[in-house]
Amino acid sequence: MLLDVTNLTVSYDKAVLLNNISMHVDEGELVSMVGPNGAGKSTLLRTISGLVAWEKEITRRSTQGDIIIKGSVIFNGERMDQIPANEIVKKGLIHCPERRRPFREMTVLDNLMAGAYLMKDKIQTQENLDQVYQLFPVLHGRSKQISGTLSGGEQQMLAVGRALMSTPKLLCIDEPSTGLAPMMRDEVFKKIMEIKKLGITILLVEQEVKMVFTMTTRNYVLSSGKIIAEGTGDQLLQDEIIRKTYLGL
Ligand SMILES: Nc1ncnc2c1ncn2[C@@H]1O[C@H](COP(=O)(O)OP(=O)(O)OP(=O)(O)O)[C@@H](O)[C@H]1O
Ligand SMILES: [Mg+2]
After folding, report:
1. Ligand 1 mean position to 158 CA, how many Å?
2. What are the structural domain ranges in the chain?
3. From the CA of 53, how far away is ligand 2's center (Å)?
4. pLDDT score at 14
């Protein structure tokens, strides 16, 4: 098991955002986490990658309410819920956040290099850059362009490219297709399949359920902070209640 989440509960003040979540991702898998808006999908990815714990540190110093995290996150045999987010990145657990966010004033190349800022190995960094340019030739052609002037689809490619610069073992991608035109979405999904073929394990949060179910090895359905189903795409689509109530299909 590459990622093993056990009995994870996250509450903000009295609101329980994640309720006793247990899930796992094996090496080489492409697993999706789907479910309605506000289900807690992004919160789950943010907890796994240490961002919620970091937020907790900030709120602890302010007078705002408390964040409580219970349960365990084990990645590659090591507890992640005890170490800071930058250490988690170094272990190869990389989070590509919701809504693409390149540094708008920086060039494409500088954004990509920012993804490698924790990497000490210059040769590996160059190899990663070559790999990103091979995967996204459009970024290669635009390496000197200011990122804020890229199209939406190009910015999404840049966000994924930046994540790849940190040598991921597990890449957690949050809603890469949101806000993109259909053709661009297909392109993004094609790239995700190519990344899987490179041997990178992927945990994908998406709204485009039908499309995603054709790509994944397994899927989890999250609703109101709870995992209510798990299975292959076919298994989940055969269940009428899940299909209608939770997937909106
Ligand atoms: N920092 C926070 N403080 C308080 N509540 C929060 C915080 N972040 C998220 N929430 C709440 O937690 C719930 C889950 O949010 P989350 O963003 O994880 O959902 P999601 O499944 O990713 O939804 P979407 O599909 O719309 O992206 C929501 O009700 C949200 O308002
Ligand atoms: Mg979200």
Report:
1. 25
2. 3-246
3. 17
4. 82
- The closest ligand to the CA of 19 turns out to be 1
Please check the confidence at residue 62 and state whether its pLDDT lies above 70: no
Query: What pTM value is reported for the model?
Result: 0.95
CATH 3.40.228.10 fits 3-246, yes or no: no
- What one-letter code names the amino acid at 24? H
